[in-house]
Amino acid sequence: MRFGRRLVAITLDWLACYAIVAALSGGVGQMSGFKPEIFFLFFGEVLILTTLSGASLGQRIFGLRVVSFVDGGPISPMQAFIRTFFLVLVFTAVTYDDNGRGIHERLSGTILVRA
Questions:
Q1: pLDDT at residue number 69
Q2: Domains in the chain: boundaries
Q3: 65 DSSP β-pair partners
């Protein structure tokens, strides 16, 4: 899987969370400084949507999905949690192996594929 498609998908997820928090907190003008709400909303969005549908909002829009590395089937809630936990650490998401899998995918036994 190419890095560009992944990057655009995760950026869309982050921007969607940013927009939701901005709308609930009075607009973009009120968004100065670090907002932990964005981080927690992003974690929840990615975890819930990946667990339920195999893809976050951005991944779905860009035709990607998360599957089990072993058999290509749906992932378990625990795999989704491990993957999301390490994804938000960022450095684990930008370090790839020969299969194009990030550390977060290796630790969770998942892989991102085209839908």
A1: 94
A2: 3-114
A3: 113
